[in-house]
Amino acid sequence: MRRQIPLMLCFIAGVFTAVQYFIPHPAIQDFQERFLAWLMTLLAFAFLLGTVSLIRLHWHKIRNKADDRGYSFVALAGLLVMIGFGFFHPAHHSPGSPFNTLFQNVQVPIEATMFSLLAFYIASAAFRAFRARTMEATLLLVAATIVMLGRVPLGELIHEQIPIATRWILEVPNMASKRGIMIGVGLGMMATALKIVLGIERAWMGGGD
Amino acid sequence: MYADGERSIPSESIRWAVVVVVALAALLSCPAAVCAQEEGESTEGDTLAAVTYAPPTGLTSVDTPNDRGSAITLSWEASADETTGVITSYEIYRSTHPDTGFAYAGKVPPGITVYRDSGLENDIEYYHRVAAASAETTLFFSATVGPTTAFPQWFNSNRVNVLIGVIIFVSAIVYFVTSARAGKELFIRRLAGLDELDNAVGRATEMGKPILYITGLSGISDVATIAAINILGEVAKKTAEYNTRLIVPCADPIVMAVEQEVVREAYAEVGRPEGYNEDDVFYLTRSQFAYVAGVNGIMVRQRPATILYMGMFYAESLVLAETGSSVGSIQIAGTDAVTQLPFFITSCDYTLIGEELYAASAYLSREPVLLGGLKGQDTVKFIVGVLLIVGFIVATLAATNVIPADFMAPLYVTG
Amino acid sequence: MDGRSLFDKILKIDRRWIFLLVGIAVVIPFFLPLGLPVVVTPPVQSLFDEVDRLPPNSQPLLMSIDYAPATLPELEPMSLAILRHAFERDVNVAVMTLHPAGYGLAERALLQAAEEYGMVYGEDYVFLGFQPGVSAVILSLGVNIRNVFPEDAYGTSLSQIPMMEGIRNFDDVPLAVTLAGWSAAEAWIYYAVEPYGQRVAAGVTAVMATDYYPYLGAGQLVGLLGGMRGAAEYEALIEHPDQGWRGMDSQSIIHMLIILLIVVGNVAYFVTGRKKKLVSQG
After folding, report:
1. Which residues of C touch A96 (CB under 8 A)?
2. DSSP secondary structure of C199-212
3. Is residue C70 within 8 angstroms of chain B, CB to CB?
4. Which residue among A57, A88, A119 closes a domain?
5. Successive 10-residue mean pLDDT values, chain B, 415 residues
6. Most exposed: B173, B393, C147, C248, by fewest CB within 10 Å?
7. CB contact under 8 A, C71 and B110
8. Residue B378 lies in domain
9. Does one domain contain both B288 and B309?
10. Co-location of B403 and B279 in the same domain
11. Position A145 in a domain
């Protein structure tokens, strides 16, 4: 029963969502709208689940005196400070509030900095691994060079045909290959979704049969 | 002047007074040009009349097709004066009577000649008229159209092609699953990345180092995450058998809950429930690069022997893979994120591309039913490929006028 | 003779030297700006034309600012450029976000642009805020905006906001633009373009842009901005060079550096490979 009820709910919800796509009548669409409203509410509760898990994990580390418990102190302190300012400060909505100030001046620069690491890693990966070992790899490198030049103003200065070649690469072979992969991935997604709705695929419930 | 010399009212003043009185009378008798105006006519007796502009013409109203009812779609031809820029909007008015009681329903900017009047009652007759509004807020009305009633439809005829596609797809899947259940042998080709899983787990066991399993940043509704969880189950069985530590940092709390269940069940299935450590399958953060920072920290501190990237990834893929490479781990990746595949192929030892990830659960378990689903999917892909080639040939012939351009038109259903 | 030739050393170079080169390449243009001109490409021109066609003081442009702090440097220049274009033409703008961290960033970009052009809240622009549940939100917007956002982000009912009068759903939104470093653009295509026929344009990071060319080709997206280059092109069109245009200098030098690294790496690889072959044959 523990597994049958979720399977049944999954089947009903899956079939209903598929059927409502073809039936615009309000007898079906009114229910769909309510369903969507419930979905938004449930997804909001997922944030709570994550917060509880985070607090539990770091509290365990602190209590058990784990080696890296210093990071856990920082994580919990950050969480409590932001929750405090976000919920209890009277002006938490306004742009100049402490919550907003911390967000704009701490979280935003930190995350932007982490993203900027990509530039360094791309350079190091390009040097280490981009090798013209085969004909296909050579073709790839030539195309990559043209596109890299074409996407910056310097490429236009080097030769006027470079941006044109770049556009052709993006709009013809790139588009064709992306379309092919997208069709395949789309069919794969449909098949997996169908298997989930029919109860053939049960990994989402956790555990085996 | 009167003949006896008394000062009289000058005739010029009288003329001006008459003009003013007549003008006032005209204005007061017709306070709004709206009420009296018919198509193409200007207001009578309007000695101070503003310039008149052409109203919209050809107004039609139909029940909005393929909808939930309560809506009527109007379309008209633009005012002839629209191109001069004097028309500032088209205002729509509706009534349940053909001559009176018209109320404002909405407006659209110039250039738009369609309006969907919604929020109506079904099965009630409505009449509409559309006015071209000028900058002076004068309205120039079209003829009244109607009566039209709104009602809901039970089937969206624009989606017939999708329905046919779904029926073909479901039929193929069901056929092959049924065949597989009946015992038919189904072949699928080798997937190198999945064959290496055993070696990867063995390596970690020999080195006495953990395995790091990363299921991407997407939620449980993403098919790639489901596929990743399938593979996690198989990997967890192997780590349970070999008593190798498995670390699974999660970016989504719901996914974490599912993964904890999957790993716990896997350990129980091989008879080692005591080997499961709940703290090793934990929620890290939803924030993309905070997650990256956390996972990179785990890689640098724990130095896992094997790292598995399975699921949906975004820009963080290269940062993760390069850090994994720098600590000397063997790395196997699988994602349907086409953008990230080049980074994984560059930095990882094996990569599952796109649908190979979805095929993983069938490949690893070799369950007939799952294999049948995979074959069904491949059959539909073949059908799509054939249709693409046929469409390409027809489109080329149409473009070169060998066949009429609208040859395939009956098959096109635009949604 | 030293067993490790120059090319061997090059192949085994510590990656931190490469990181240092990248850092220098990025910083140089801050002190020596190149000021290179930017040529506009059709996907960006297409979005510009769409915004240019929007009627002033009428149905709003709906901007879904869905990026997180990580992709702010690439995507904020885009949002500012589009907002400036809209405000320059007195087009009403309604801003929302589908990402929880996008709330502060959407507000920040919107208020900055509004202040530059002296726009009035409620009459010229409105901030709707954040709602969780991407697909559910977009589908519900197509039915009734008030189902999702009964109030704006500051608690004011939409019925009390002048510019939202008569704005019911996607029927009254001539154009929606999503700016995101994740798959928000795909969600807008699946749940707004396909079921409702909504006109949608997207701004995404450079690495994601190639994924969206099929949608652009099929007409499911009416415009596309890719990365900082896309922002720079849009800034050129509105004649308001800002962060996007300034970033092009650093990007030009970095691209040249990466090409150089690839060439050097391959030369070293082939030279050392040939040497090993000669040694083994000898």
Report:
1. none
2. -EEEEE-HHHHGGG
3. yes
4. A88
5. 37 52 47 40 43 90 91 94 88 94 90 90 94 86 93 91 90 86 78 81 91 91 87 92 93 89 92 89 85 92 94 88 91 88 86 82 78 85 89 87 72 49
6. B393
7. no
8. 158-184+370-411
9. yes
10. no
11. yes
CA angle C203, C208, C209 (to 5 degrees): 55
- Which residues of chain A are within 8 Å of residue B66 when distances are taken between CB atoms? 24
In this predicted structure, the answer to whether residue C171 has a pLDDT above a threshold of 70 is: yes
Write the CATH number for B217: 3.40.50.1220
Q: B87 pairs with which residues across the strands?
A: B134
* Residue C95: strand, helix, or coil: strand
Examine residue B48 and state whether it is found in any structural domain, yes or no.
no
User: Which residues on chain C are in Cβ contact (under 8 Å) with A119?
Assistant: 22, 26, 254
Taking the C-alpha atoms of residue B40 and residue B170, their distance in angstroms, rounded to an integer, is: 58
Query: Range of A200's domain?
Result: 130-204
Residues B144 and B199 in one domain: no
Whether residues B303 and B173 fall in one domain: no
User: Does one domain contain both B279 and B354?
Assistant: yes
With CA atoms as reference, the chain C residue closest to A142 would be C259
pLDDT at position B2 is 33
> Tell me, what CATH number does B61's domain have?
2.60.40.10
Tens of pLDDT, residue by residue over A181-191, are 888 888 888 88
Number of domains composing chain A: 2
Residues 6+ apart with CB under 8 A from A64: none
Instruction: Choose among C133, C153, C257: nearest Cβ to A123.
Output: C257
In this structure, the answer to whether residues B87 and B234 fall within a common structural domain is no
Query: Is residue A99 a part of any domain in this protein?
Result: no
Residues 6 or more apart in contact with residue C204 via CB below 8 angstroms: C75, C179, C180, C181, C185, C211, C212, C224, C225, C226, C227
pLDDT at C233: 95
**Which of A66, A88, A110 is a domain's end point?**
A88
Q: Evaluate whether residue B65 is within a structural domain.
A: yes
Q: Do the beta carbons of residue B118 and residue B71 sit within 8 Å? A: yes
Note whether C53 contacts B: Cβ–Cβ < 8 A: yes
- Say if A102 falls within a structural domain: no
Give me B33's structure tokens: 């040009």
pLDDT value for C240: 95
Q: Which of C261, B35, C210 is nearest to A126 (CA)?
A: C261
Number of domains in chain B: 3
Residue of A nearest to B288 (CA): A111
Q: Tell me, what's the ipTM?
A: 0.79
Query: Across the interface, do B118 and C194 touch by the CB < 8 Å criterion?
Result: no
Asked if the Cβ–Cβ distance from A188 to B354 is below 8 Å, we say yes
What percent of chain A lies above the pLDDT cut of 70? 96
- Minimal-distance CA residue of chain A relative to C24: A120
> Do B178 and B256 reside in the same domain of the chain?
no
**Tokens representing residue B232 in the block:** 């996690």
Closest in B229, B319, B354 to A118, CB measured: B319
- Is pLDDT at A60 greater than 90 in this prediction? no
Are the C-beta atoms of B140 and B344 separated by less than 8 Å? no
pLDDT tens-digit readout, C183-208: 899 999 999 998 899 999 999 999 88
Residue A122 resides in a domain: no
Prior bond of B147 cis (ω within 30°)? yes
Q: Give how far A140 is from chain B: nearest CA, Å.
A: 11
**Residue B232 counted as domain residue:** yes
Calculate how close chain A gets to B210, using CA atoms only, in Å.
Answer: 17
